[in-house]
């Protein structure tokens, strides 16, 4: 709706009040792409002023389109070693009586995960894991800052190569991990190994666990849009790395100490790194090298769930806690979050659905594979066929859950699995409990839509 003519006033667009000597108007937009809606909310007597307002010309501020954002390249890297479920019992024999209640329960859970192999930074036979005295937290810190950094650099180089960019082209870095807490952060170590410019804007996110990949995407999007508003090109290098296997001894000690709890982390988590480059529309080549267009994103924390998903420091590493409520909490959150994002899909990109509008089944889903209960539950609740979750099932089955990078690995894997839905919904869950969701659109190689 076009705004009514208003005499002798200056309009300030987007949910602000517009004043003239006689009337007050409410100006609002639902998004940068919507028309301006103007509503007179009250009338006031004319106010005399020492300023001559009649000399101010009427100004209509036209809202700008939302700056476009593109994922120009992705890369993922798993370490060379794998650990298969059938080897767990022999590994546990080195440290524990496998007939103790906690260990017996863990071995039973191990048979139900449907994971065929998990990627690990070292073989479990390596003395680093198998020695009688478990590595200390300081040893694990030093290990991550070597092996984790190297793994991340490999993923970043793949993403840069895929985007056709060099390290010197990067304007920002957004990094995330929950398996290292050293300072300076591993983001600086990776940046230095890649040869990024010293003035590169760096941000390191911590404390978000498995939600981290999309938390970093959300932060990168805000930075890129900020640069768009300032008329600057943005090329944001995002990377996530977790070395979860280094915490296995801390997790196993918790299993033995608290046998009444069901601990799944020792049979679920793995190691990995992933990276992508997010560009705004002002970046040179952004129109030519595009994998996905990032349409919109949302985040939310579920009240009263802070103890259901934790990752806390211990002298032997980080201890993960996932209560049995996590799958049901995830399922409760995903529908409302989809409803919040659904209106973001431009009408010309939405399949014809009549009065029902866009549905979850109209998307391919890059769902963080937090466990088989979450994957199966989301598939059933949203009415998806397995093909719409094929990348999530593939990553989970062959590599396990490597926390923050996993959803980014799924996005990377999805684009290599042939044709699918044009629109993609990415979703992950983390401590808090927090849900992150991002709506994307596939873009053909070379920028042709």
Describe the protein's topology.
Layout: E1 16-19, E2 23-28, E3 37-43, E4 69-77, E5 81-83, H1 88-93, H2 101-110, E6 118-120, H3 127-130, H4 137-163, E7 172-176, H5 186-194, E8 201-205, H6 212-229, E9 235-243, H7 248-257, E10 271-280, E11 292-301, E12 309-314, E13 317-322, H8 326-341, E14 363-367, H9 372-382, H10 390-399, H11 406-414, E15 423-430, E16 434-442
Helix pairs in contact: 2-7, 4-5, 8-9, 10-11
Polypeptide structure, described:
It is a single chain. The protein is built from 11 helices and 16 strands. It has helices at 88-93, 101-110, 127-130, 137-163, 186-194, 212-229, 248-257, 326-341, 372-382, 390-399, 406-414, and strands at 16-19, 23-28, 37-43, 69-77, 81-83, 118-120, 172-176, 201-205, 235-243, 271-280, 292-301, 309-314, 317-322, 363-367, 423-430, 434-442. The strands form 4 sheets. It has a 9-stranded mixed sheet with strand order 8-7-9-10-4-11-16-15-14, sandwiched between helices. It has a 3-stranded antiparallel sheet with strand order 1-2-3, with no helix packed on it. The chain has a two-stranded antiparallel ribbon with strand order 5-6. It is globular. The chain starts with 15 loop residues before the first strand and ends in a 7-residue tail after the last strand. 42% of the residues are buried.
């Amino acid at each position: 709706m076009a705004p009514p003519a208003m005499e002798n006033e200056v309009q300030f667009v987007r949910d602000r009040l517009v004043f003239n000597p006689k009337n007050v108007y409410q100006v609002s937009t639902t998004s940068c792409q919507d028309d301006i809606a103007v509503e007179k909310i009250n009338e006031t007597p004319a106010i005399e002023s020492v300023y001559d307002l009649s000399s101010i010309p009427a100004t209509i501020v036209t809202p700008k389109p939302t700056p476009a954002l593109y994922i120009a390249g992705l890369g993922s890297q798993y370490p060379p070693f794998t650990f298969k479920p059938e080897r767990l019992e022999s590994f546990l024999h080195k440290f524990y009586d496998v007939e103790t209640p906690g260990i017996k329960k863990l071995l039973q859970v191990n048979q139900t995960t449907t994971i065929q192999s998990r990627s690990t930074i070292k073989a479990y036979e390596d003395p680093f894991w198998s020695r009688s005295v478990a590595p200390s937290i300081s040893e694990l810190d030093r290990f991550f800052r070597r092996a984790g950094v190297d793994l991340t650099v490999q993923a970043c180089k793949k993403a840069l190569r895929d985007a056709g960019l060099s390290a010197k082209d990067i304007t920002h870095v957004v990094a995330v991990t929950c398996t290292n807490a050293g300072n300076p952060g591993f983001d600086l170590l990776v940046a230095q190994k890649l040869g990024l410019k010293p003035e590169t804007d760096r941000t390191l996110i911590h404390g978000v666990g498995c939600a981290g990949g999309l938390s970093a995407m959300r932060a990168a999007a805000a930075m890129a849009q900020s640069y768009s508003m300032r008329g600057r090109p943005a090329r944001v290098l995002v990377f996530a790395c977790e070395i979860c296997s280094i915490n296995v001894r801390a997790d196993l000690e918790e299993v033995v100490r608290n046998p009444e709890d069901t601990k799944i982390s020792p049979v679920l988590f793995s190691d990995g790194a992933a990276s992508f480059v997010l560009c705004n529309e002002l970046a040179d080549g952004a129109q030519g090298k595009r994998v996905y267009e990032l349409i919109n994103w949302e985040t939310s924390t579920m009240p009263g769930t802070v103890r259901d998903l934790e990752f806390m420091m211990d002298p032997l590493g980080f201890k993960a806690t996932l209560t049995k409520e996590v799958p049901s909490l995830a399922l409760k959150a995903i529908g409302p979050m989809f409803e919040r994002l659904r209106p973001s899909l431009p009408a010309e990109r939405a399949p014809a659905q009549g009065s029902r509008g866009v549905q979850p089944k109209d998307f391919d889903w890059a769902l963080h594979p937090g466990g088989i209960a979450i994957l199966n539950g989301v598939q059933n609740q949203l009415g998806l066929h397995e093909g719409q979750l094929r990348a999530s099932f593939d990553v989970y089955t062959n590599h396990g859950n490597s926390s923050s990078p996993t959803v980014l690995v799924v996005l990377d894997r999805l684009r290599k699995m042939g044709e699918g839905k044009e629109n993609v919904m990415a979703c992950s869950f983390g401590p808090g409990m927090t849900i992150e969701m991002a709506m994307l659109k596939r873009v053909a190689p070379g920028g042709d839509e």
